[in-house]
Amino acid sequence: MAKAEKCRIIAIEHLTLDGVFQGPATADEDTRNDFQYGGWSAAGDDPKMREAIGKYMGKGWSLLAGTRTYEDLYHAWPQRRPHDPMTRALTKPEKFVVSRKVNYPLPWEHSTLLTGEAAQTVASLKEEHDRNLLIFGSGEIVRSLMQANLLDELLLIIHPVILGAGMRLFDKGSPLARLKLNSLSKTENGVMIAAYQAKKD
């Protein structure tokens, strides 16, 4: 019997030059703390950027998300665009949702609840799962997994914009992390696409 491939955890994040990752896609995506710049990544949209993300989604993969990201994706795609190819791409894979709420509802098919602290529940999942786990957004989970040396790769899509406000992916209190740059490219719109490998202690 062939041995299952080792599961890797990969975070795919849109960032501004000042490190903001809040609400990149739409105006109403994440308005916490009166954030007014939702949808800031739209100006940087480019086929090369979508191709870079598509390389990770083109292989066998599963989604790993916190409750806010899970809800955002569910409402943005199957609820609003049921026939869009992206909806199919997100609906088919398994979806693992980290929550401290034991009875958190999961309306999207192929969804499994991981109850408890992310570092503990995801560590067990990583040992058992045979596909890569992709994270979009979910900054708290990303930081927690980095602290526990569970994150394998970061794809940072860095847009040439400074907002001066908004939640930052790596803010005060983020764990010390040393990364290795695996690849770097840019789009015609000036978006930098940087793939980093997490160095394990």
Automatic annotation (TrEMBL):
Task: Tell me the SUPFAM superfamilies matching this sequence.
Answer: Dihydrofolate reductase-like
Could you give a single Gene Ontology term from the biological process aspect? riboflavin biosynthetic process
Check the record and name the InterPro entries matching this protein.
DHFR-like_dom_sf, RibDG_C, Riboflavin_Biosynth_HTPR
Bacterial bifunctional deaminase-reductase C-terminal domain segment(s): 15-192
Q: Which top-rank group of organisms is this from?
A: Bacteria
MF terms per GO, please?
5-amino-6-(5-phosphoribosylamino)uracil reductase activity
The family database entries (Pfam families) matched by this protein are listed as:
RibD_C
PANTHER family in the record: BIFUNCTIONAL DEAMINASE-REDUCTASE DOMAIN PROTEIN, DIHYDROFOLATE REDUCTASE FAMILY PROTEIN (AFU_ORTHOLOGUE AFUA_8G06820)
Q: What is this protein called?
A: Dihydrofolate reductase
Q: Which organism is it from?
A: Mucilaginibacter corticis
Q: What is the lineage of its organism?
A: Bacteria, Pseudomonadati, Bacteroidota, Sphingobacteriia, Sphingobacteriales
